[in-house]
């Protein structure tokens, strides 16, 4: 399959180019597109066959459900059996934005999207290209991150081209993404609500709106969020996490026979935005070991450390 790359202005997406990509979604094809979190790999969420192609293109396990993206709050009426009051409060505060909300699904959502679960994960992204693509396609778009399963999520179009060229119909190049880590996932089918995946929107921010707890990873074979049990975000190089400059130097010295990439960041924002990109670049440059200086495991740092620990296999 030949993959078409369409370059778009992220601030003012050209209408004719959005329409071209939307036609592919409408006809059951796959389009990768940028959101404020990471690049997504999209298909018509109401088309069972189209959704199945996402799993094939990514090599994604059949029991890891997808997030459905909407451009308009009214679109969720047909996707869920009921909109809980807490969902309304969260949407009002955080949508469009990096918060995915899990609710009881309606019969309209194909089981390929939810992998047979009774619940569906929904998000309204903030990025204009994503919103325009969804509204022009005239359907909700199911989209996981646009990487091969297991690899770090793509934060620039080049990563998607590296992983998906020849496997999907179209890639929209809309430049780099703002956040660089996947959305916060919150499960409202559970009382109190549970954060299944930490992200840019923190527990502290959510607590101001509704009661919420963090999911503890005590049962990895039967996790609340099926995606939790898989190896994620991993470069080929081994990753070691260190806490200080001194430790970074010591670990580097101990491994001096290896080709080492040291990663340290000035802020959490820059770490989130650059980490996955740096993992991919380290692989391209043939490093065997990546040593990363950690950040405090709280607030947005919690999301960063979650991805970093998973990438390092710890
Ligand atoms: P990604 O593939 O990176 O976009 O991740 C999507 C995440 O949302 C994965 O961790 C999924 O397991 C999770 N997810 C999607 N739908 C559901 C659902 N109905 N219940 C629990 N987790 C879900
Ligand atoms: Mg993913």
Question: Describe it for me?
Answer:
The chain has 314 residues and is of the alpha/beta class. 32% of the residues lie in helices and 19% in strands. It is built from ten helices and 14 strands. The protein has helices spanning 15-26, 48-58, 85-94, 111-114, 128-137, 157-164, 203-207, 245-254, 268-284, 300-312, and strands at 4-7, 31-34, 39-44, 67-69, 99-104, 119-123, 141-142, 170-173, 184-187, 193-197, 212-214, 238-242, 260-263, 289-293. It has an eleven-stranded mixed β-sheet, sandwiched between helices. Helix 7 links the parallel strand 10 and strand 11 (212-214). The longest helix is centred in the last third of the chain and has 17 residues, at 268-284. The radius of gyration is 19 Å and the shape is globular. The model has no long low-confidence stretch (mean pLDDT 95). The structure holds adenosine monophosphate and magnesium ion. Adenosine monophosphate is lined by residues 64-65, 67, 102, 114, 117, 119-121, 144-145, 182, 185, 196-197, 225-227.
